[in-house]
């Protein structure tokens, strides 16, 4: 959530209890955190013109859930997500959701003709790949977006993969579009209901799949829900998330090109290209080094202090501890590829920041 404008195998998570010492008072406090209650809350991307970006994501059916204005620091944050009565998180507090997109706008970029975003898909700045929405009727949904004048990186008819498309947002970030239903059942349907859409996943590229899977399962407490191996194309995809309805017995593949977890929100897709782990000089761009674009993913937790203590005990690398800087309600962990992971309090479970 915080933008740092000036920078500035399945393992089931366990319930963890810890006692820590306050060295000042010598008193003891018992803190607990349960990773099974965590939520993959949002993914942050920087945008040039918030009016155009908000308009685009609202056209995809999202609503502005929360806006945080920081005029002194000269940036605003826009949190968008699905919130219709059919949405998975309808009516929830913004911190008690999965599948939000955070748009960070630094004042003045919309007036700067030279300001450009890196979308994470061009060399030498590859890293972040895309966000993904799942829709009811894939063909009709893609046609609706095209009719509105938005561009595509890949249409359904392009290439070999006829069951996915990639739309481009105003900053040329890729938005994957996948179907919730078999293609042959939706090919003659001309309508689409945006209230049924889901913000399904966020994709990042990783160097070493073993290190990243270990980190996201053992440290962040996620579960590996699905693996898609593609040896002929030299890459694998790993989909992880926190516990949700329908996770048990998820098949690794499905007929008709339908992703078996397309109905979920708040998933993380890790893309591993074979061999990168063997190149000691290889690294991905995390989006926060120049040129900037993608910022971070964010996990909301049951008890922020206890969760950060747990991360400390697991010897994570920190970008920002809770005690660093003036923002005492957010922390940032670094994953094995130096992607930033924001950690915030789920305000439904425990009030802290009164966002």
From TrEMBL:
GO terms for molecular function: lactoylglutathione lyase activity; metal ion binding. It is an enzyme of class 4 (lyase). Its cofactor is Zn(2+). The active site is at 342 (proton donor/acceptor). Binds 1 zinc ion per subunit. In the homodimer, two zinc ions are bound between subunits. It catalyses: (R)-S-lactoylglutathione = methylglyoxal + glutathione. NCBIfam families: glyox_I (TIGR00068). Its EC number is 4.4.1.5. It comes from the Eukaryota. This is Lactoylglutathione lyase. Residues 39-180, 198-346 form the VOC domain. Pathway: Secondary metabolite metabolism; methylglyoxal degradation; (R)-lactate from methylglyoxal: step 1/2. Keywords: Lyase, Metal-binding, Zinc.
């Amino acid at each position: 959530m915080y933008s740092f404008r000036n920078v500035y195998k399945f393992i089931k998570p366990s319930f963890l209890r810890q006692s820590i010492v306050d060295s000042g008072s010598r008193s003891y406090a018992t803190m607990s955190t349960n990773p099974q209650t965590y939520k993959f809350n949002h993914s942050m991307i920087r945008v040039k013109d918030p009016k155009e970006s908000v308009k685009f994501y609202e056209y995809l059916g999202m609503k502005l859930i929360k806006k945080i204005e920081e005029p002194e620091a000269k940036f605003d944050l826009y949190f968008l997500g699905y919130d219709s009565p059919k949405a998975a998180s309808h009516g929830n507090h913004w911190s008690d959701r999965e599948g939000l997109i955070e748009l960070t706008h630094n004042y003045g970029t919309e007036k700067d003709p030279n300001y450009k975003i890196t979308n994470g898909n061009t060399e030498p700045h590859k890293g972040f790949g895309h966000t993904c929405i799942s829709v009811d009727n894939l063909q009709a949904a893609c046609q609706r977006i095209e009719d509105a004048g938005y561009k595509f990186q890949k249409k359904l008819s392009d290439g070999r993969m006829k069951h996915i498309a990639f739309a481009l947002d105003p900053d040329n970030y890729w938005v994957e579009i996948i179907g919730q239903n078999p293609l042959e059942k939706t090919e003659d349907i001309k309508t689409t209901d945006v209230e049924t859409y889901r913000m399904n996943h966020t994709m990042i590229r990783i160097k070493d799949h073993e290190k990243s899977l270990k980190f996201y399962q053992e440290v962040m407490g996620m579960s590996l829900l699905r693996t898609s191996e593609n040896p002929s194309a030299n890459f694998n995809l790993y989909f992880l998330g926190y516990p949700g309805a329908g996770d048990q017995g998820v098949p690794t593949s499905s007929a008709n090109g339908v992703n078996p977890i397309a109905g979920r929100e708040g998933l993380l897709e890790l893309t591993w290209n074979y061999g990168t782990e063997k190149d000691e000089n290889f690294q991905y761009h995390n989006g926060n080094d120049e040129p900037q674009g993608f910022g971070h993913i964010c996990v909301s937790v049951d008890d922020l202090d206890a969760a950060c203590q747990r991360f400390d005990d697991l010897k994570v690398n920190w970008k920002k501890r809770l005690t660093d800087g003036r923002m005492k309600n957010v922390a940032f962990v670094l994953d094995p590829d130096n992607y930033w992971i924001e950690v915030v309090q789920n305000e439904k479970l425990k009030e802290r920041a009164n966002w």
